[in-house]
Each structure stands twice: as structure tokens, then as C-alpha cells.
UniProtKB/TrEMBL annotation:
InterPro entries: AcTrfase_PglD-like, PglD_N, Trans_hexapeptide_repeat, Trimer_LpxA-like_sf. GO terms for molecular function: transferase activity. This is Acetyltransferase. It comes from Paenibacillus xylanilyticus. Residues 4-80 form the PglD N-terminal domain.
Length: 205
């Protein structure tokens, strides 16, 4: 772990990530990278370059990709990993994590998150504000659980899937890789074909 943290993405998501990093009190310095040249700072932190500059900072900084789009986040994090970057896990101090829970690098747990025992959260995931993940779940890499989503027990969520705000997933359900579950949807049975699903119960659109 390095003493400085560089957050890639200075937008709304990046700001929340920076706040969590601040609350963790682990880094003496926090800065951003962002491709928007007009953005000079975010919160009180300086934007010191563009996203592509990240590779130049690998030696001096921990790097965290704060980009909401699952595919873009995945692509950049994978490249940074290959280049040997140190990529932390960010955990809001007001989140609750049970026993035998594993969390992959580049994942952020936001305020009010609860993860119960024996669940596995992959790398590069966003577990957004107030989301809950119950027992024995597998949340694969680069998943985004939006604010207020609730995942029951024994659920598997495939790589790169996005669950919209307030989405619910019943117990013993499996959702295939790169699915999109709309805001407020309730998934009550397995989703085996990638696509967009909305409503109660969730159906393909
Ligand atoms: C901190 C943060 O901000 S984290 C981000 C939180 N944001 C979210 O959770 C947003 C989630 N996004 C959604 O729910 C979107 O509506 C999506 C991704 C499901 C669909 O978006 P699009 O692909 O653009 O679909 P589009 O808006 O064209 O809708 C297609 C149809 O599905 C319906 N639909 C879309 N979303 C939903 C929904 N959540 N529930 C029910 N019906 C929906 C639309 O009304 C439309 O129906 P129609 O054809 O009868 O008019």
C-alpha cells in the first residue's frame, strides 16, 4: 500500500469514492485523474492529469478506478493490474461486513452497506449506498449494485451485471454475466440470457 491515492474519475461517483477514502484515514494525499480538461478539482482534491496518465503514477500512488460504467471500469482496472498497480479496497467505516466475507481489489463498499457471512464480492465492484448482500452469495467481478439493492441468500450475480436502484433479487437465484436489472425490479428466478430486465417480477424488455 502507498501513502498517496489517485482516483480515476472525478465525477459524481468519484466524489463519493474520495469521501470514503478520506474517512478511511489511510492516505496522506488524495488526487484525481479525469479526461475532462475543464475539471481542475473535485471536492477539495486536485485533478492532476487524464485517465491515460494513470500508468505514469503506478510507482507513487495506490490507484482506484471510480468509473460507473462496468465495462470501462473493467477494461481500465485490468490494464492497471497487468501493469502492476496497487489497487485498494475502499470500505466506508459505516458498513457492516460479516465473517468469511471476501472482497476483491478495486471494489468500493459505500455507506450503509451490509454483507452477511460467507459471501464473496469480486474485484472492481461497486456496492452502492445502503445495498445489502445476504449470506453465501457470489457477486462476480465488475458488478454494480446500485443504492438500496437487496440480494437475498445463495445468489450468484454474473460478471459485469448492473442492478439498478432499489432492485431486489430473491434467494437461490442466479443472474448471468453482463445483465442489466432495471430500477425497482424484482428478480425471482434465474436469468440465463443476458439482456435488460425490468418490473415485478423482472421480465426482459
Ligand atoms: C448513485 C447512482 O446514481 S447509481 C445509478 C442508479 N441508476 C439506476 O438505477 C438507473 C437504472 N436504469 C433503468 O432502470 C433503465 O430504465 C434501464 C437501464 C432498465 C433501461 O434503460 P433503456 O435501455 O434506456 O430503456 P428505455 O428507457 O428505453 O425503456 C424501455 C422500456 O422499459 C420501461 N422501463 C425502463 N426502465 C424500467 C424500470 N426500471 N421499471 C419498469 N419499466 C422500465 C420503459 O418505460 C420502456 O417501456 P415502453 O417501451 O413501454 O415505453
Amino acid at each position: 500500500m502507498k501513502s498517496k491515492l489517485l482516483i480515476i474519475g472525478a465525477g459524481g461517483h468519484g466524489k463519493v469514492v474520495a469521501e470514503i477514502a478520506m474517512k478511511m484515514n489511510r492516505w496522506s494525499e488524495i488526487a484525481f485523474l479525469d479526461n475532462n480538461e475543464s475539471k481542475r478539482s473535485s471536492l477539495k482534491f486536485e485533478v492532476i492529469g487524464k485517465s491515460d496518465d494513470a500508468f505514469r503514477y503506478i510507482c507513487g500512488y495506490d490507484l482506484f478506478v471510480a468509473i460507473g460504467d462496468n465495462r470501462i471500469r473493467e477494461e481500465l482496472q485490468e490494464k492497471l493490474e497487468k501493469a502492476g498497480a496497487s489497487i485498494p479496497v475502499l470500505v466506508h467505516p459505516q458498513s457492516i461486513i460479516g465473517n468469511d466475507v471476501s472482497i476483491g481489489m478495486g471494489t468500493v463498499l459505500m455507506a450503509g452497506v451490509i454483507i452477511n457471512c460467507c459471501s464473496k464480492v469480486g474485484k472492481g465492484c461497486i456496492v452502492n449506498t445502503g445495498a445489502t448482500i445476504d449470506h453465501d452469495n457470489v457477486i462476480e467481478d465488475f458488478v454494480h449494485l446500485s443504492p438500496g439493492t437487496h440480494i437475498a441468500g445463495n445468489v450468484r450475480i454474473g460478471k459485469g451485471t448492473w442492478i439498478g436502484i432499489g432492485g431486489l433479487v430473491s434467494n437461490n437465484v442466479s443472474i448471468i454475466t453482463r445483465s442489466i436489472i432495471g430500477a425497482g425490479a424484482v428478480v425471482v428466478k434465474d436469468i440465463n440470457t443476458a439482456g435488460t430486465y425490468v418490473g415485478v417480477p423482472a421480465r426482459g424488455v
